Q: What sequence folds into this?
């Protein structure tokens, strides 16, 4: 895999349809993705003193965070509405090489900030619920 631009890492939100159409959450300056896995330890006396883990077991999750400039786009409005109502929504992470990760996420944090005579900024955190599919 070659070097990729960070600006090509996009967070997109679905429109709520059964087969969602995704729109980029405009104004994101930084994004971060973490894939988390919880191990199930199956070590026994026969393990020879080495820890053994059960493949395919445990809990997996994806965490996403981002920060950017508020632009008032429809996608940002949908994210804010989801945050205020606490409902899950469809999100897609898109990468420069064409790869995507799609799943249901909950907005766990949405912060707004602004300085006098400056832009209004925000930070967002999302946590996955259910399977996240990579394509």
A:
């Amino acid at each position: 895999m070659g070097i990729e631009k960070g600006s090509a890492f996009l967070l997109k939100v679905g429109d709520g349809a059964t087969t969602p159409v995704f729109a980029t959450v405009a104004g994101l300056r930084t994004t971060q993705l973490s894939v988390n896995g919880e191990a199930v330890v199956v070590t026994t006396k026969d393990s020879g003193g080495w820890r053994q883990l059960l493949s395919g077991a445990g809990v997996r999750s994806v965490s996403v965070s981002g920060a950017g400039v508020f632009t008032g786009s429809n996608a940002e409005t949908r994210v804010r509405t989801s945050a205020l109502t606490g409902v899950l929504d469809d999100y897609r992470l898109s990468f420069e090489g064409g790869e995507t990760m799609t799943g249901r996420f909950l907005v766990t944090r949405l912060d707004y900030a602004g300085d006098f005579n400056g832009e209004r900024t925000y930070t967002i955190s999302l946590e996955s619920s259910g399977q996240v599919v990579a394509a």
Strands lie at 10-14, 22-24, 28-37, 60-69, 89-94, 100-114, 120-134.
